[in-house]
Prior knowledge:
The complex is a heterodimer.
Chain A: H1 16-19, H2 22-38, H3 42-59, H4 63-70, H5 74-87, E1 92-96, E2 99-102, H6 103-129, H7 132-143, H8 153-183, H9 193-224, H10 243-265
Chain B: E1 3-12, E2 27-35, E3 39-43, H1 50-57, E4 65-70, E5 73-74, H2 81-87, E6 88-91, H3 104-114, H4 119-132, H5 148-160, E7 166-170, H6 178-194, E8 198-202, H7 206-209, E9 214-219, E10 222-227, H8 229-233, H9 236-241, H10 248-258, H11 270-281
Parallel strand pairs in B: 3-8, 3-9, 6-7, 7-8
Antiparallel strand pairs in B: 1-2, 1-4, 4-5, 9-10
Helix pairs in contact in B: 3-4, 3-5, 4-5, 5-6
The complex binds adenosine-5'-triphosphate and magnesium ion.
Amino acid sequence: MLKDITIGQFFPGNSVLHRMDARFKIIITALFIAMLFSANTIIGLLPGILFMALCYALSKIPFRLMLKSLKPIIPIILFTSLLNIFFLDGVVLLRVGFVRITYDGILFTVMMILRIAALIAGSSLLTYTSSPISLTDAVESLLSPLKKLRFPVHELSMMMSIALRFIPTLIEETDKIMSAQKARGADMESGGLLHRAKALVPILIPLFVSAFSRAMELALAMECRCYQGGEGRTRLKVLHSKGADYIGLTIAMLFLDATVLVDLLL
Amino acid sequence: MENIIEIKDVNFRYHNSDEEDLGVNVLEHINLNIKKGEFVAILGHNGSGKSTLAKLCNAILTPSSGVVLSYGFDTSDEQNLFDIRKKIGMVFQNPDNQLVATVVEEDVAFGLENIGVPTDEMRKRVDEALRAVDMYEYREHAPHKLSGGQKQRVAIAGIIAMKPECIVLDEPTAMLDPRGRNEVMNTIRMLNRDYGITIVLITHYMEEAAEADRIIVIDGGAVMLDGKPEDVFSQVALLKSVGLDVPQVTDLMYCLKEQGFPADTHIISEEAAFDLLYRLLL
Ligand SMILES: Nc1ncnc2c1ncn2[C@@H]1O[C@H](COP(=O)(O)OP(=O)(O)OP(=O)(O)O)[C@@H](O)[C@H]1O
Ligand SMILES: [Mg+2]
């Protein structure tokens, strides 16, 4: 059950996007988010969505995966769109009793759905096409100016990569603990919210205990392998920016310009 | 032969988090020398102090009294820490908890990155190490998708990439199935034979210990037996009295001898046992 989560997963491949420098991919993702949020109309969202479609086409990631990445957010989308449709003021289209649906409400809701869906699908592409290591390296490299302010950049990226390394291990462990507790008669599927929250306690406590003992052992193993922080460290894979990265960045900027223009003109 | 680890009259006791002495010596009056190129197995029941002894060798722990010299460096001196750890690698029981990176080759590179090996040289050493443990095809895999034996071999590759002269393995096969155990034991044997790396193997499996050049039995924090596998295992009654087993063939010889047959408890291999049984039956 826990294994179905696709957000944050990496799908190895050899497309243009896979080969791009992760630093550029992060910046381009930020530009993409800017596209989505600077748009004020549905048409203004089009350049951003077009850009995302282009990226998906280039990445050769199957369409079905994009849909899968959207699945977990369906409840959120449904909930907020219901609220918006019924409670926004504007030109009334339909009135049943005290419930009314407005033109503005519908427009706003459609925009919001498009925006959230594009946001999730588009930013998932970043992790789909970049290995976790290249991402943490990219974050370290992008944040490196902060080192001068004594911000622990290396430590942060090390923590991120260890977290990524242990997510599958801990998920597996959670599954095991859940089965073990079920075998002891724990009931996790029925009852109200409070009851189910309580049923989580006997899962979380062993999970934490084991996570701590894993952490101790890992720290010991790291020490044995001469780990001494970021100072004087070299890397197996060094990030290199290429022509394609700059072209990608330029294209993303053009799309952002297009978004702003469309909004200004309409 | 030259001694690479010298343990001289070492006592060790743990401290709790407030630096308070726990009052019991976990290790008592240990005197041991490990020679270059040796394959040493350490046996002892749970809590006898094997892991503690291992951690003393590469300065994870320092003796409460006495001296540990690893490659001539005093482990109590902080300045020697990295010199010692570059020469003595350590592999632990749980393969999951010693892999740091999300990709096999990045994990093998971890130690090299720490000691600042240049990228080109690192690439070469990582590939070499992965080939040595026969995991080269898996270099781009995620560690959590490997079998236990494969994970443990990746952990060993991470250590041998640093070109250590000695590897201490603390129950590296305890969490593995028979197949994984075989893979890891073959790797260990190969490192000792072909690369001349000194091996200190802590284990609960007597069959694994029987392959060593020398066995040290620890009981209650002290060295109880130290010698060739044949000699150590021939002390069947003594070993059983401290809760340890002997290899099955030795046990068989012991039973035969007790029944009055002319069997020899120095036998630790199946072939030798077969020969002897064959002669007895003729
Ligand atoms: N961090 C610690 N703090 C306090 N006591 C400890 C600590 N680690 C181990 N001990 C104690 O020291 C003794 C020896 O432990 P050690 O781990 O060396 O045994 P071992 O021979 O490796 O056992 P096993 O076969 O279970 O691995 C045990 O009695 C144990 O309870
Ligand atoms: Mg132990």
